[in-house]
Amino acid sequence: HLQLVESGGGLVQPGGSLRLSCTASGLSLADYVVGWFRQPPGTNYIGIACISRSSGSTYYAVDVEGRFTISRDNAKNTVYLQMNSLKPEDTALYYCAAAYRRGFLRVQDMCIREDDINYRGKGTLVTVSS
Questions:
Q1: pLDDT (0 to 100) of residue 82
Q2: Are 70 and 50 in contact (CB under 8 A)?
Q3: d(CA 114, CA 68)
Q4: pLDDT on residue 2
Q5: Cα(45)–Cα(95) distance, rounded to whole angstroms?
Q6: Residue 60: beta bridge partners?
Q7: R_g over Cα of the chain
Q8: Rounded CA gap, 30 and 109, in Å?
Q9: pLDDT tens, 42-91?
Q10: What pLDDT does 1 receive?
């Protein structure tokens, strides 16, 4: 059964930190470009962080650059999103997605244009509030 499962969401105060995890089953994440997307209440989802297969390239949306870090552990079949200095506007449903292309896939193409996405998780809710 192929799936991506997110975990690590919850309620955190402004300025706090959370680490989200995206773990795959039934597929090897090492073959995929992986990204984190978020959907704030009442808006469309957007790509916020994507990472290449080898971790050599990353992309961050301007709203999170410098505060969030995406990383991956292919041996654990898991991708992480470390979120620091959280703000109320970071409140959203966060989900991960995996994209496969036989050739080269730029991380920004996955995050911005959602190219070649094959799998998406169901998401984990992050609420930033005092």
A1: 98
A2: yes
A3: 20
A4: 84
A5: 9
A6: 49
A7: 14
A8: 18
A9: 999 999 999 999 999 999 999 999 999 999 999 999 999 999 999 999 99
A10: 75
Q: How many CB atoms lie within 10 A of CB 44?
A: 7
**Contact 20/34 with Cβ under 8 angstroms?**
no
The position carrying tokens 């870090």 is 69
For the record, the structure tokens of 8 come out as 């690590």
Rounded Cα gap, residues 19 and 26, in angstroms: 23
| CA pair distance 40, 71, nearest whole angstrom | 22
Q: What tokens does 12 get?
A: 């955190």
d(CA 53, CA 106): 10
* pLDDT reported for residue 89: 97
Beta carbons of 126 and 91 less than 8 angstroms apart:
yes
